[in-house]
Specification:
Strand content: 15-25%
Radius of gyration: 19 Å
Number of strands: 14
Order of helices and strands: EEEHEHEEEHHEHHEHHEHHEEEEHHH
Structural class: alpha/beta
Shape: globular
Helix content: 25-40%
Number of helices: 13
Length: 334
Protein backbone atom coordinates (compact mmCIF):
# COMPACT_ATOMS: atom_id res chain seq x y z
CA UNK A 1 0.00 0.00 0.00
CA UNK A 2 1.22 3.56 -0.68
CA UNK A 3 2.67 5.52 2.21
CA UNK A 4 0.10 8.05 3.53
CA UNK A 5 0.33 11.45 1.86
CA UNK A 6 0.62 12.41 -1.77
CA UNK A 7 3.38 13.37 -4.19
CA UNK A 8 3.01 17.02 -5.14
CA UNK A 9 4.43 17.91 -8.57
CA UNK A 10 5.20 21.50 -9.56
CA UNK A 11 5.73 22.44 -13.17
CA UNK A 12 4.33 23.64 -16.47
CA UNK A 13 1.72 21.69 -18.38
CA UNK A 14 2.44 21.79 -22.11
CA UNK A 15 0.69 21.06 -25.37
CA UNK A 16 2.78 18.82 -27.60
CA UNK A 17 2.35 19.01 -31.37
CA UNK A 18 4.21 16.27 -33.23
CA UNK A 19 4.69 15.20 -36.81
CA UNK A 20 2.66 12.08 -37.63
CA UNK A 21 4.08 8.87 -39.04
CA UNK A 22 7.73 9.63 -38.33
CA UNK A 23 7.85 12.50 -40.81
CA UNK A 24 9.23 16.00 -40.45
CA UNK A 25 7.24 18.89 -39.03
CA UNK A 26 4.67 20.19 -41.52
CA UNK A 27 5.59 17.58 -44.09
CA UNK A 28 1.93 16.68 -43.81
CA UNK A 29 -0.85 19.22 -43.19
CA UNK A 30 -1.70 17.75 -39.76
CA UNK A 31 0.00 17.49 -36.36
CA UNK A 32 -0.78 15.09 -33.52
CA UNK A 33 -1.73 16.80 -30.24
CA UNK A 34 -0.96 15.51 -26.75
CA UNK A 35 -0.63 17.16 -23.35
CA UNK A 36 2.44 16.65 -21.21
CA UNK A 37 5.22 18.40 -19.35
CA UNK A 38 7.78 16.66 -17.15
CA UNK A 39 6.09 17.11 -13.78
CA UNK A 40 2.60 16.45 -15.15
CA UNK A 41 3.93 13.23 -16.68
CA UNK A 42 5.23 12.11 -13.28
CA UNK A 43 1.91 12.94 -11.62
CA UNK A 44 -0.04 10.89 -14.18
CA UNK A 45 2.33 7.92 -13.99
CA UNK A 46 2.11 7.85 -10.19
CA UNK A 47 -1.66 8.10 -10.18
CA UNK A 48 -1.89 5.22 -12.66
CA UNK A 49 0.13 3.16 -10.14
CA UNK A 50 -2.36 4.10 -7.40
CA UNK A 51 0.08 6.49 -5.74
CA UNK A 52 -1.84 9.67 -4.83
CA UNK A 53 -0.48 12.63 -6.78
CA UNK A 54 -1.33 16.29 -7.19
CA UNK A 55 0.03 19.09 -9.35
CA UNK A 56 0.61 22.80 -8.87
CA UNK A 57 0.43 24.60 -12.19
CA UNK A 58 -1.45 27.20 -14.23
CA UNK A 59 -3.80 26.85 -17.18
CA UNK A 60 -5.61 29.35 -19.39
CA UNK A 61 -9.31 29.76 -18.71
CA UNK A 62 -10.39 28.60 -22.15
CA UNK A 63 -11.10 25.43 -24.13
CA UNK A 64 -7.39 24.58 -24.37
CA UNK A 65 -6.95 24.83 -20.62
CA UNK A 66 -10.02 22.68 -20.02
CA UNK A 67 -8.70 20.02 -22.38
CA UNK A 68 -5.35 20.02 -20.56
CA UNK A 69 -7.17 19.73 -17.24
CA UNK A 70 -9.17 16.76 -18.53
CA UNK A 71 -5.94 15.04 -19.62
CA UNK A 72 -4.89 14.98 -15.95
CA UNK A 73 -8.28 14.50 -14.30
CA UNK A 74 -9.14 11.33 -16.21
CA UNK A 75 -6.04 9.64 -14.78
CA UNK A 76 -6.91 10.54 -11.20
CA UNK A 77 -4.42 13.36 -10.60
CA UNK A 78 -5.56 15.86 -7.94
CA UNK A 79 -6.10 19.06 -9.95
CA UNK A 80 -7.36 21.31 -7.15
CA UNK A 81 -4.06 23.22 -6.96
CA UNK A 82 -4.17 24.32 -10.62
CA UNK A 83 -4.89 28.03 -11.09
CA UNK A 84 -6.77 29.41 -14.09
CA UNK A 85 -6.20 32.82 -15.66
CA UNK A 86 -5.85 34.83 -18.84
CA UNK A 87 -2.89 33.84 -20.96
CA UNK A 88 -1.53 31.13 -23.19
CA UNK A 89 -0.54 27.53 -22.70
CA UNK A 90 3.09 26.73 -23.42
CA UNK A 91 3.69 24.25 -26.20
CA UNK A 92 6.42 22.40 -28.01
CA UNK A 93 6.86 20.86 -31.45
CA UNK A 94 8.32 17.38 -31.82
CA UNK A 95 9.91 15.73 -34.82
CA UNK A 96 10.06 12.07 -33.76
CA UNK A 97 13.29 10.19 -34.27
CA UNK A 98 13.47 7.71 -37.11
CA UNK A 99 16.40 5.45 -37.96
CA UNK A 100 19.61 7.38 -37.32
CA UNK A 101 17.72 10.70 -37.22
CA UNK A 102 17.38 11.88 -33.61
CA UNK A 103 14.17 13.38 -32.22
CA UNK A 104 14.15 17.17 -32.12
CA UNK A 105 12.13 19.56 -29.96
CA UNK A 106 11.26 23.21 -30.61
CA UNK A 107 9.81 25.10 -27.62
CA UNK A 108 7.17 27.82 -27.86
CA UNK A 109 6.60 28.70 -24.21
CA UNK A 110 7.80 32.28 -23.78
CA UNK A 111 5.40 34.37 -21.66
CA UNK A 112 3.04 31.47 -21.08
CA UNK A 113 0.59 31.78 -18.19
CA UNK A 114 2.76 29.50 -16.04
CA UNK A 115 5.87 31.57 -16.81
CA UNK A 116 4.29 34.83 -15.64
CA UNK A 117 2.38 33.58 -12.59
CA UNK A 118 3.89 34.72 -9.26
CA UNK A 119 1.31 33.93 -6.52
CA UNK A 120 2.10 30.70 -4.65
CA UNK A 121 1.03 30.04 -1.06
CA UNK A 122 3.45 27.17 -0.50
CA UNK A 123 2.47 26.26 3.08
CA UNK A 124 -1.13 25.81 1.92
CA UNK A 125 -0.23 24.10 -1.36
CA UNK A 126 2.03 21.61 0.42
CA UNK A 127 -0.57 20.52 2.97
CA UNK A 128 -0.63 16.72 3.13
CA UNK A 129 2.32 16.22 0.75
CA UNK A 130 5.00 13.65 1.60
CA UNK A 131 7.09 14.48 -1.50
CA UNK A 132 7.56 17.58 -3.62
CA UNK A 133 8.78 16.72 -7.11
CA UNK A 134 10.04 19.30 -9.58
CA UNK A 135 12.72 19.58 -12.23
CA UNK A 136 15.39 21.85 -13.64
CA UNK A 137 13.00 22.84 -16.41
CA UNK A 138 11.11 25.23 -14.12
CA UNK A 139 14.10 27.39 -13.06
CA UNK A 140 15.25 27.37 -16.70
CA UNK A 141 12.15 29.37 -17.64
CA UNK A 142 13.58 32.57 -16.17
CA UNK A 143 15.01 34.22 -13.04
CA UNK A 144 11.63 34.71 -11.37
CA UNK A 145 10.68 31.06 -11.81
CA UNK A 146 14.10 30.04 -10.48
CA UNK A 147 13.32 31.95 -7.28
CA UNK A 148 9.83 30.44 -7.06
CA UNK A 149 10.99 26.85 -7.55
CA UNK A 150 13.70 27.29 -4.91
CA UNK A 151 11.13 28.78 -2.52
CA UNK A 152 8.91 25.75 -3.12
CA UNK A 153 11.73 23.39 -2.17
CA UNK A 154 12.55 25.31 1.00
CA UNK A 155 8.87 25.40 1.97
CA UNK A 156 8.63 21.64 1.43
CA UNK A 157 11.57 21.07 3.76
CA UNK A 158 9.96 23.33 6.37
CA UNK A 159 6.71 21.35 6.03
CA UNK A 160 8.48 18.03 6.57
CA UNK A 161 8.05 16.79 2.99
CA UNK A 162 10.90 15.15 1.12
CA UNK A 163 12.13 16.84 -2.07
CA UNK A 164 12.79 15.16 -5.41
CA UNK A 165 14.64 17.10 -8.12
CA UNK A 166 15.14 15.94 -11.71
CA UNK A 167 18.01 17.79 -13.39
CA UNK A 168 16.31 17.76 -16.83
CA UNK A 169 18.86 20.20 -18.25
CA UNK A 170 17.47 22.17 -21.19
CA UNK A 171 20.30 24.10 -22.84
CA UNK A 172 18.01 25.95 -25.25
CA UNK A 173 15.93 27.36 -22.38
CA UNK A 174 18.85 28.35 -20.16
CA UNK A 175 20.68 29.89 -23.11
CA UNK A 176 18.02 32.59 -23.51
CA UNK A 177 18.83 34.29 -20.23
CA UNK A 178 21.58 32.60 -18.22
CA UNK A 179 25.16 31.88 -19.31
CA UNK A 180 26.03 29.93 -16.16
CA UNK A 181 23.09 27.97 -14.68
CA UNK A 182 25.27 25.86 -12.38
CA UNK A 183 24.98 28.13 -9.29
CA UNK A 184 21.18 28.21 -9.62
CA UNK A 185 21.00 24.45 -10.01
CA UNK A 186 23.34 23.92 -7.07
CA UNK A 187 21.01 25.98 -4.88
CA UNK A 188 18.17 23.67 -5.89
CA UNK A 189 20.09 20.43 -5.35
CA UNK A 190 21.12 21.75 -1.92
CA UNK A 191 17.46 21.32 -0.93
CA UNK A 192 16.92 17.86 -2.44
CA UNK A 193 16.69 14.45 -0.82
CA UNK A 194 16.55 12.64 -4.17
CA UNK A 195 18.32 13.71 -7.35
CA UNK A 196 17.58 12.33 -10.78
CA UNK A 197 20.76 12.86 -12.78
CA UNK A 198 23.81 11.12 -14.20
CA UNK A 199 27.53 11.90 -14.26
CA UNK A 200 26.99 14.61 -16.90
CA UNK A 201 24.49 16.43 -14.68
CA UNK A 202 26.89 16.19 -11.75
CA UNK A 203 29.73 17.50 -13.94
CA UNK A 204 27.62 20.55 -14.72
CA UNK A 205 26.78 21.08 -11.05
CA UNK A 206 30.34 20.71 -9.77
CA UNK A 207 32.28 22.17 -12.70
CA UNK A 208 34.52 19.12 -13.07
CA UNK A 209 34.74 16.09 -15.32
CA UNK A 210 34.72 12.44 -14.39
CA UNK A 211 37.04 10.47 -16.69
CA UNK A 212 36.69 6.79 -17.42
CA UNK A 213 33.56 4.88 -18.23
CA UNK A 214 30.88 2.64 -16.82
CA UNK A 215 29.96 2.04 -13.16
CA UNK A 216 33.26 3.38 -11.79
CA UNK A 217 32.69 6.79 -13.36
CA UNK A 218 29.08 6.88 -12.20
CA UNK A 219 30.12 6.01 -8.66
CA UNK A 220 32.88 8.62 -8.60
CA UNK A 221 30.41 11.26 -9.73
CA UNK A 222 27.84 10.16 -7.14
CA UNK A 223 30.37 10.28 -4.32
CA UNK A 224 31.39 13.79 -5.36
CA UNK A 225 27.74 14.87 -5.34
CA UNK A 226 27.08 13.36 -1.92
CA UNK A 227 30.14 15.19 -0.56
CA UNK A 228 28.96 18.52 -1.97
CA UNK A 229 25.24 18.10 -1.17
CA UNK A 230 24.95 16.54 2.29
CA UNK A 231 21.14 16.46 2.29
CA UNK A 232 21.08 14.07 -0.67
CA UNK A 233 20.18 10.52 0.26
CA UNK A 234 19.75 9.01 -3.21
CA UNK A 235 20.83 9.69 -6.79
CA UNK A 236 18.84 7.85 -9.46
CA UNK A 237 19.93 7.61 -13.08
CA UNK A 238 19.65 5.62 -16.27
CA UNK A 239 22.26 4.67 -18.85
CA UNK A 240 21.08 4.43 -22.44
CA UNK A 241 22.69 3.10 -25.60
CA UNK A 242 20.80 3.99 -28.76
CA UNK A 243 21.62 1.86 -31.81
CA UNK A 244 19.04 3.91 -33.67
CA UNK A 245 15.76 5.65 -32.88
CA UNK A 246 13.87 2.36 -32.50
CA UNK A 247 16.50 0.10 -30.93
CA UNK A 248 17.87 1.06 -27.51
CA UNK A 249 19.18 -0.57 -24.37
CA UNK A 250 18.55 0.90 -20.94
CA UNK A 251 19.75 0.24 -17.41
CA UNK A 252 18.91 1.90 -14.10
CA UNK A 253 21.04 2.77 -11.11
CA UNK A 254 20.46 4.21 -7.65
CA UNK A 255 23.38 5.43 -5.55
CA UNK A 256 23.34 6.13 -1.83
CA UNK A 257 26.24 7.65 0.13
CA UNK A 258 27.50 4.17 1.00
CA UNK A 259 26.41 1.82 -1.77
CA UNK A 260 24.85 1.48 -5.22
CA UNK A 261 22.51 -0.86 -7.05
CA UNK A 262 22.55 -1.15 -10.84
CA UNK A 263 20.28 -3.25 -13.03
CA UNK A 264 21.31 -5.25 -16.08
CA UNK A 265 20.76 -3.72 -19.51
CA UNK A 266 17.26 -4.10 -20.86
CA UNK A 267 16.94 -4.26 -24.66
CA UNK A 268 14.09 -2.14 -26.01
CA UNK A 269 13.12 -2.60 -29.64
CA UNK A 270 10.35 -1.28 -31.89
CA UNK A 271 10.20 1.99 -29.93
CA UNK A 272 7.02 3.97 -30.51
CA UNK A 273 7.71 7.12 -28.47
CA UNK A 274 10.79 7.84 -26.33
CA UNK A 275 9.55 11.20 -25.00
CA UNK A 276 8.56 11.00 -21.33
CA UNK A 277 10.54 7.86 -20.52
CA UNK A 278 12.69 9.74 -18.01
CA UNK A 279 9.54 10.97 -16.26
CA UNK A 280 8.23 7.40 -16.14
CA UNK A 281 11.53 6.34 -14.57
CA UNK A 282 11.21 9.08 -11.95
CA UNK A 283 7.66 8.00 -11.12
CA UNK A 284 8.70 4.37 -10.76
CA UNK A 285 11.52 5.28 -8.39
CA UNK A 286 9.27 7.52 -6.29
CA UNK A 287 6.64 4.79 -6.16
CA UNK A 288 8.99 2.19 -4.65
CA UNK A 289 11.84 4.08 -2.96
CA UNK A 290 10.51 3.31 0.51
CA UNK A 291 10.81 -0.40 -0.39
CA UNK A 292 14.57 -0.11 -1.01
CA UNK A 293 16.88 0.88 -3.84
CA UNK A 294 16.64 -2.43 -5.71
CA UNK A 295 12.84 -2.34 -5.84
CA UNK A 296 12.88 1.34 -6.83
CA UNK A 297 15.47 0.91 -9.59
CA UNK A 298 13.68 -2.07 -11.11
CA UNK A 299 10.27 -0.38 -10.94
CA UNK A 300 11.70 2.76 -12.54
CA UNK A 301 13.40 0.79 -15.29
CA UNK A 302 10.33 -1.30 -16.11
CA UNK A 303 8.00 1.70 -16.12
CA UNK A 304 10.42 3.59 -18.39
CA UNK A 305 10.64 0.59 -20.72
CA UNK A 306 6.86 0.32 -21.02
CA UNK A 307 6.60 4.04 -21.83
CA UNK A 308 8.71 3.47 -24.99
CA UNK A 309 5.70 1.63 -26.46
CA UNK A 310 3.12 4.24 -25.42
CA UNK A 311 2.39 7.18 -27.76
CA UNK A 312 2.36 10.63 -26.18
CA UNK A 313 4.22 12.12 -23.23
CA UNK A 314 2.70 10.09 -20.43
CA UNK A 315 3.11 6.59 -19.02
CA UNK A 316 -0.28 4.88 -18.82
CA UNK A 317 0.92 1.62 -17.27
CA UNK A 318 -0.90 0.28 -14.22
CA UNK A 319 0.32 -2.17 -11.60
CA UNK A 320 -0.95 -5.13 -13.62
CA UNK A 321 1.11 -4.03 -16.62
CA UNK A 322 4.24 -3.88 -14.48
CA UNK A 323 3.57 -7.34 -13.08
CA UNK A 324 3.10 -8.83 -16.56
CA UNK A 325 6.21 -7.10 -17.88
CA UNK A 326 8.28 -8.28 -14.94
CA UNK A 327 7.02 -11.81 -15.54
CA UNK A 328 8.67 -11.70 -18.98
CA UNK A 329 5.84 -13.43 -20.84
CA UNK A 330 4.97 -11.45 -23.99
CA UNK A 331 2.24 -13.83 -25.09
CA UNK A 332 -1.33 -12.59 -25.64
CA UNK A 333 -3.30 -12.33 -22.38
CA UNK A 334 -6.91 -13.45 -22.62
Amino acid sequence: MPTPGHVLCFGEILLRLSAPGGGALFQQPTLEANFGGAEANVAVALSRLEIPSAIVSSLPADAVGEAALDALRRHGVDITRIAFGNGRLGLYYLTPGMGMRASTVVYDRLNSLFAVRRDYDWPALLTGARWLHLSGITPAIGPEMAEISLAAMKAARAAGARVSFDGNFRASMWGRWCTDPAPILRDHVDQADLLFGNHRDISLLLGRSFPGDGPARRREAAEAAFARFPRLGHIASTARHASDARQNSLSARIDTPHAAFETDDLKISDIVDRIGTGDAFAAGVLARLDDGVEAAAICGLHLAALKHWTPGDQSLAVRRDLAIFSDGNADVRR
